[in-house]
Amino acid sequence: MQELGILTNAAVLCLGGKIVSVGTSRDALRDSWAKRNKKKIVEIDCAGKVVLPGFVDSHTHPAFIHPRLVDFEKRIEGASYEQIADAGGGIRSSVEAVRNAGTNALASKIHAVLREMAAQGTTTVEAKSGYGLTLDSELKSLKAIRQAARAWPGTVVPTLLGAHVVPNEFKDCSQKYVQIVCNQMIPQAASRKLARFVDVFCDRAAFTAEDTRQIFEAARAHALEVRAHVGQLTETKLETLLPFHPASLDHMDHVSDADVKTLAKLDTVVTLVPGANYFLGLETYPNARRFLEAGVPVALATDYNPGTSPTVSMPMAMSLACTQMKMSPAEAIAAATINGAWALRIARHKGSIEPGKDADLALFDVKDYREISYWFGANHCTATIFNGIIVSSDRTFSEQSS
Ligand SMILES: [Zn+2]
After folding, report:
1. Tell me, what's the pLDDT at 160?
2. What is the chain's alpha carbon radius of gyration, rounded to the nearest angstrom?
3. Where are the beta strands (DSSP E) in 203-351?
4. 136 and 103 in contact (C-beta within 8 Å)?
């Protein structure tokens, strides 16, 4: 993760949405296809800029309607989780709004966020349901994700997070809710091809390791891959989850040495989401160095959600990773690109600038890649390219591409 393979005075040649060649500008100009088709080529002058693979944001919750401003203000005043819920905030308020929303309204919220993410250099987004918590509203959320994805040039990987929290109506019989996730949500999401992954919030006050095992079992029976939120509040022993080959385990603030050792031998990625720690005002962050030094692949994601991490910015997550988790700027880039792609099991097509991969690129108006994490709170992305299609915040490029 320290070695980014940086090329200077370089060029990337893309054709049909794929990267064809990467090398020096000279090589690109010598390419025989490029020579013959010179007039057809749209050239983007990136002189003095940094070109990266588009960010892969492998953990987001965009299927909601309102920001949670009550939570925000009450938490600043020092209110507890229960007091926030009593004041009309908390996850319950998001659930109510999603249950009452139409698919189109939800899809337009998601689409707006995908565009904001793209403006900061993100070209691939994993998007979870999880604020509906009934069969109908979880399927509605996944349909809204699909609708938004179709209207966006980037790539969206949909995840069913029916097991986000136990909804109020099942408070005293959570096992009944787990059965709904296993026997209704998973089969329907799978048969309608609405989700690629099943996710579970496995933690105190959410779902137990045994609940998670049952849900993973159901996912496997319907050929869906699995991932989980683990160790955000308390440690869960990973032995119950690892036999299901999760693509990623996310948060991981709390994990034992023995489990870190085991993870180093597997291809499960650990996805760290420091935006949540920042926004909750926590003093501690996940221990990235412990994973990195053990040889565990680490990805970074925004965890975009209304309660604990309302940010669309991968550069912000990277900056937090550098300053709060002591990841190097190079490690932060690798974690936000290729390792995010591994965390979604799409690294064959995404996450690096290599011939054969999708032409997903992000252009930054900085001279050195380290500046992307350094100028925190600023956006230096000037253009994003999805499968060879240019979307730009800088007019000159959109004029060139049209
Ligand atoms: Zn999350």
Report:
1. 98
2. 21
3. 225-230, 248-251, 269-272, 298-300
4. no
